[in-house]
Write a structure and sequence with these properties.
Layout (H helix, E strand, L loop, with lengths): L2 E4 L8 H7 L4 E4 L3 E5 L10 E4 L2 H8 L12 E4 L2 H11 L5 E2 L4 H12 L3 E7 L5 H6 L4 E12 L10 E4 L2 H8 L9 E4 L2 H9 L5 E3 L5 H12 L1
Parallel strand pairs: 1-2, 1-9, 4-5, 4-7, 5-6, 7-8, 9-10, 10-11
Antiparallel strand pairs: 3-8
Length: 224
């Protein structure tokens, strides 16, 4: 059986798992990063609350209820998966949903948020991609809602295809192990691709969009 490794824990709604399982492809799904909550305080005023990731959404709403947010605050998500998690956890549909890529999402978001105060809920080691792109257009404030740490003693995988979903996951694996000659690497986006290149991985396929559906498509292309 063909095996695929993905650096993410997959839930029962995972389109990646469903698509590949239906094709008889084995899946090794494991995050190589541990997450832990950080205590934070909300600033008194902001016009927008911006989430980079599903993890950020989860840790934010463990400490904050919707009724604690400023009146008329709007919510933004970097991509559809993040926006969907906002809706699932809070019951609120985000007012802005990016396509998951920092550059295009920042460009679209600036059209509706220019001159406003935007609170970014982020990880301790976030690359702050959107807020750095927009710092001249909006008033940026931030809270750090969680931290992530590489798991020690990550085991090597013999999977035919390795799918990496973040730079930190890539670092966790390749600081311990090398790619074999028969393994193919797929990156969820350009930021992860660059991290993989810095770690010495040369042949990398990048998904057309940063979501599980696009990752599954790339896996099937490789296997075909």
């Amino acid at each position: 059986m063909m095996q695929v490794f993905i650096s993410r824990s997959l839930d029962k709604e995972s389109i990646f798992a469903k698509t590949l399982s239906e094709k008889g492809i084995g899946i090794e799904a494991q995050s190589l990063v541990e997450f832990s909550a950080l205590v934070f305080e909300l600033p008194p005023h902001f016009d927008w609350l911006f989430f980079y990731s599903k993890t950020g959404v989860e840790f934010f709403f463990k400490q904050v209820n919707l009724d604690q947010l400023p009146n008329n605050v709007k919510i933004a998500g970097l991509g559809p998966a993040t926006a969907h998690r906002v809706q699932i956890i809070s019951g609120r549909t985000p007012d802005f949903i990016g396509n998951g890529t920092p550059e295009q999402s920042a460009s679209e978001f600036s059209k509706i948020a220019k001159g406003q105060t935007v609170l970014f809920a982020r990880a301790a080691d976030s690359r702050q991609s959107v807020q750095l792109l927009l710092q001249s257009d909006i008033n940026v404030i931030e809270i750090i809602v969680y931290k992530n740490k590489i798991i020690d003693n990550v085991a090597a995988t013999s999977a035919n295809i390795m799918v990496f979903t973040s730079p930190l996951n890539a670092e966790a694996y390749f600081k311990k192990h090398k790619l074999t000659t028969v393994q193919q690497v797929i990156a969820i986006g350009n930021t992860t691709e660059k991290a993989l290149q810095a770690l010495g991985v040369k042949k990398i396929i990048v998904a057309e969009s940063p979501d599980e559906s696009a990752l599954a498509v790339e896996v099937l292309k490789v296997l075909s």
